Amino acid sequence: MHFFLGISSNYSDDQPYSWTFPPFHPKSEIYKDSKVCITKDNPFPQSNLVCPVETKLQPDGTLPDIESTYEAIQFLQRTRLSGIPFFLAVGFHKPHIPLKYPKHFKKFHPLDKVLLPNQRRKPPGLPIVAWNPWTDLREREDVKELNISFPFGVIKDKQARLIIQSYYAAVSYVDDLIGLILKEIIHLQLDKTTVIGLIGDHGWSLGEHGEWSKYSNFDIATRVPLILKIPGLSDRNLKINDYNTVDVPVELVDLFPTLVDATGLQSIRQCGSKSKTTKLCTEGKSLLPLIMNALNNGTKKEERYFALSQYPRPGEYPTLKPNSDKPKLKEIKIMGCSIRTERFRYTEWCGFQNFSINWRDTKACELYDHYLDPMENLNLSEDKIYFEIRKELSNMLRLQWNTY
């Protein structure tokens, strides 16, 4: 099992509360940001954003995600022999920056096939507070060399294609590692009895709106893969390489209660307003009813589904200090709260203090109609035609935040 180090796990890996055994950490992880990137233009090792490498020439002759993969395979082999039910979580770093990956994966994404987004500048109706100036990329040496103006400068086409190519290559690299684990599950004959889930923790802008990285409430940064294989259910009546899809917004907090139900354990109750005093509860909801409905061709009337997200800012204008993309808790003055329904995304940027959102102190709003504008380039929050829709979404947004 792989887990993020540091504050996100309370400097403890959430151990022993979340895991039976101490989580695995790849030894080569200490070289994550080391200066190992060499380009044609610069033969000296750098700490670059774009960093295809020869794996055997890396420190320890490997990469962290490769180490995690083989640790997971060995865990499956040991567990198969014991016959004991298990929960295994495997976390991959890529395509997290730096975009360091075995260089042969570039061949799957030729530069002349890499497409750039249509809208590569800040949309006219985008509130400045919503802007993500991608400060994490600007810290990398190869991006620094481009001398791009802060905060609204645009990466030129040539360099943009190189970044996108490496992002895709890093994804292909991880896809290959996931394939090795799935192949082992089949080899060990665990595929008929094992629930498998594949998720991402966030999306990543690749030049859309002129932005890069993940520090926004746009769909491109908040929408993630959520793929479930439930033996005897999700694969019912399917041909090889076929799949069922459920096209409604759900949340990653729904994964926990879904896995509990899918494995036949006792369902987890909703937290509600007593989450701080309840020993075991969930703020998500099981997705099994949605899956069953899809298998029955949608004959059962569905409840309304939506997804929430939020992102903080230290102020209304992008700054390097404090960091607009990664403000510390004491620096947060504005919170962007967003709700995504099947058709719309609505966001309010409001004053924030003492862990509370001041809904009366609204700095800016965004409203995107995905039927007309799936890439979220046209902010309709001031359009009179959408007045009632904005009002309804605003009420839904505030109600949900106040519930928790």
Automatic annotation (TrEMBL):
Keyword check for Iron-sulfur: no
Molecular function per GO: iduronate-2-sulfatase activity; metal ion binding
Residues in Sulfatase N-terminal domain copies: 27-264
Keyword match Metal-binding: yes
Origin superkingdom: Eukaryota
Cofactor(s) this protein requires: Ca(2+)
Gene Ontology CC terms, in alphabetical order: cytoplasm
InterPro entries assigned to the protein according to its UniProt record, in alphabetical order: Alkaline_phosphatase_core_sf, Sulfatase_N
Keywords of the record: Hydrolase, Metal-binding
Family stated for the protein in its record: Belongs to the sulfatase family.
Full protein name: Sulfatase N-terminal domain-containing protein
